[in-house]
Each structure stands twice: as C-alpha cells, then as structure tokens.
Amino acid sequence: RELQARRAFEIYPSFSISIYSPLFPLLLFRLDRNTPIIMRRLCPNIDRDDGLETILEVPIPEEMFTSMGSNVTLRWQNMSTWMKAQTSDKWSSPIIANRLNELRFLLYLVGSPLIPLQVQLGHSIHRPVRDCSIEASTAKYIVQQYIAATGGPAALNSVQSMCVTGQVKIKASDFHLSDESIEVKKSTEEIGGFVLWQKNPDLWCLELVVSGCKVICGSNGKLSWRHSSNNQHSPISTGPPRPLRRFLQGLDPRATANLFIDAMCIGEKLINDEDCFILKLETSPAIREAQSGPNYEIIHHTIWGYFSQRSGLLIQFEDSRLLRMRTKSDEDVFWETSTESFMETYRYVDGVNIAHSGKTNVTVFRYGEHSANHKREMEETWKIEEVDFNVWGLTMESFLPPPGTSVLQLHDAS
Q1: Exposed end of the chain (fewer CB within 10 Å): N or C?
Q2: Would you say 374 and 176 are in contact if contact means Cβ atoms under 8 Å apart?
Q3: Strand pairing partners for 228?
C-alpha cells in the first residue's frame, strides 16, 4: 500500500488519502505538477532518510505548517510529535483537556454544524406553482433562476458524488455580558484544513483538523454522528440523518435548490452592494420534536437564503436556532445561535458554479432565569482548494459510522 501511495502521488500530485483510510483506493484531484503548494499532504520520515513519506489523511494549510517551527526540519519534527500525540494520554492533562474542549466547541459549532431539515434526494427540483401563494410561487421562480445560474439542471444532475478539500481560519471572543461590546480576537486564530466526501445530502463524511484537534462527522443515510478523534473515550453524538451546513454554503447547488424550493419569498435586502431576494424557511413542529432530546428542546429553527437579483447566485445563507436546556437543578437555560455565511469567488467546476471562498459569523447567546445573559461571537474564514465530482470507487463503506455507534442512544445537541 505504501508503494501504491507513492506511485499514486507521482501520478496525482495532490493525492491526500491515508493508506489506512477506507477511501484509499480513490485517486483524486488530477492537478498539474506546477500547482503551488497551498496545503501540505505529505509528512517525510524524519527517523529514516530512505523511509517513505506519510500521506496525511487531512491536508494542512501551508500557513499552519510554517507556524510549527523556524525551519523545515523543526516543523516536521513538531508535526510528527503532534501526530503521535493523537493517541497518547497527554490529552488527559487538565490544561490540554481545557484547550481541547475549547477547540471541540469551535469545531462543532462553527466548523461542522448540521441543518435539521431533510433535503430531497431526487434530481427533480420542480414544484407546481398552481394553488400557491404569491410568496411561494415567487420563491420557486427564484430557485429556478438559481439553478440556471449554477449550471442548469443537466450539469447539476450529472453530479453523483463529490470530494472537497479546503482550509479554514477560526477566531472567537470570550463569553461577555450581552450588553458589553465584543471584539473577536485575532490572536486566538485557529488554522486548519478539511476533507469532505458526499454522495447525497444524507450520505457524507467530513474530517476537520484545526490546531491539533480533529473532528470526524458524517451520515450514512440512517443516522448522523460526530466525535473528536483526539479522545477515544469521548462520547459519539448521534441523531437522524441530516445534511452538513457546509454543503449549503455554495458547495452543493442541487441540495440548496431542493432545500429552498418550498420556501417563501419575504422581501428584498441589499447585501454587499447586491440587491437580493430573501427566501425564508421554517422548520415544522414535527421536525423540531424529532431533533429534541430528553433534556433539551428546539423551540425554533429558521433558515434564510439571500439570492442576488443580478446573478441569481446565493450570496448569504443564514439560520437561527433557539434551544432550551434543563439543568441538573431543574432550571431552564436558553441557547440562541445565529449563523450567517457569505459566499464569494464563484467558479465553474465541470459546468457547476461553486463558491470557492467565504466567511461565516456565529453569535451565541446564553440566558436563563437565574443565569446572567452572556454572548459570544465566532468567525470562520474558509477557502476551497479543490473540488472533484463523480468520484470513482466511492461506496457505502466510505461512510460507515464508528464501531458501536448504532447501539448508542445519544442525541446530538451541539
């Protein structure tokens, strides 16, 4: 397998799958050899000069690599130490554990949030407008314009699967009282990369590595799961199959169109000097009840899409959720999360118009009857490096949940 990996890398310079990964046989990303190094994919064998390089399961941004030391040798030594520490007992240290919990909070809330709505799996994105209100029929017309702007039905329906690699930068403020001004601290900026695989909105897998913390989440069509691989004893959160929010940030136009086909057009808004139509979608009580658990309840979850009147493209994707949690002292604590994503740099890949960069802002409010109102803000800047469609060899085995997940009766409360 190591020799196969070396040969694969000679043919596919950006081949980035671990030889131990179930996705190893998939040879992706046929890039030119002159492509500049933006993300590191190989780690040299620092113990043996004649040893084979390790193919990183998740590529890391060049900026993250350069911050690991003053020279190349030291950087690779620190990289190797970090890789070996993933399965060590060092994560049990209180200081490191607190750091890991903070990173996990950011990656769960900002890097890998899910959308509590079922997205239609079929290729047809048409709905009859007969007997529809003016708001509903207008929304359907806007969605059809969006389909045309992203490549048209033929191009979108030709996509059977996809693989995406990208990099992220995440920074966050501390919790403050809600009436205090908040500044998102650049000094705490976390840098990382991700690999994303998908066959449909309910069949996907994401591996996200940021500042030494790795989160793996996915959906196999029957359940979704999410856990941190740094701590093997951490619980695996599971729930019904749901689409990853990142797909709806300009990566999967067909899923986005299917999501908003039943929305309502509620008006217009100027965003970044673009006149946009606003489409709104409310989650039903049945969906909210299905997503709730014994100790928490989703009170509301609303989604908005802002589509450019000029280009027809999705410019901003926004959702807001209110969650009520019951504490051990039998008190209610409310968590309100508002997320805004701005899509930029649309480029065509095999006839499909994909957003290749953007920014996501997250605001979290925490308040309750005997709890002070607190507020925290987070910001993620993301950039898509590579996109490939119709991945050969991608099977159901590529989306298997962690062992034992099916018997756990846990719910994902983010």
Answers
A1: N
A2: yes
A3: 215
Contacts of 200 (CB under 8 A, 6+ apart): 121, 221
232-259: pLDDT as tens digits:
556 777 888 888 999 999 999 999 999 9
Q: Is 249 buried (19+), middle (13-18) or exposed (0-12) by CB count in 10 A?
A: buried
Q: Give me the amino acid identity at 412.
A: D
Greatest Cα pair distance, the chain, in angstroms, is: 72
Q: How far apart are CA 263 and CA 200, in angstroms?
A: 21
Where does residue 280 fall: left (phi above 0), alpha (psi -120 to 50 degrees), or beta otherwise? Answer: beta
Question: Residues 219, 202: contact at Cβ < 8 Å?
Answer: yes
Residue type, 215: V
Tokens at 338, concatenated: 């508002």
How much is the pTM?
0.79
- For residue 75, the tally of other CB atoms under 10 A from its CB is 17
Local structure of residue 46 (DSSP, 8 states): S
Pairwise CA distance, residues 122 & 145, whole Å:
19
Residue 15, SS3 per DSSP: coil
CB 191 within 8 A of CB 202: no
pLDDT digits (tens, 9 = 90+) for 320-342: 999 998 877 777 889 999 999 99
Strand pairing report for 39-43 and 162-172: unpaired
Confidence of residue 172 (pLDDT cuts 50, 70, 90): confident
- Token code pair at residue 309: 């009147």
Q: At what angle do helices 134-149 and 253-260 cross, to 10 degrees?
A: 170
- Cα–Cα distances (Å) from 358 to 191, 317, 380, 383, 389, in that order, read 15, 11, 8, 7, 21
- Taking residue 350's Cβ as centre, other Cβ atoms within 10 Å add up to 14
List the one residue out of 109, 355, 112 whose CA is nearest residue 246: 112
User: How many DSSP H helices and E strands does the chain contain?
Assistant: 8, 16
With a CB cutoff of 8 Å and minimum separation 6, the contacts of 228 are 100, 104, 107, 213, 214, 215, 216, 234
Annotated domain spans of the chain: 2-87, 104-407
Strand ranges (E), 312-397? 314-326, 332-349, 352-368, 371-389
The CA distance from 257 to 247, in Å, is 12
**Cβ neighbours for 232, distance < 8 A, ≥ 6 positions apart:** 87
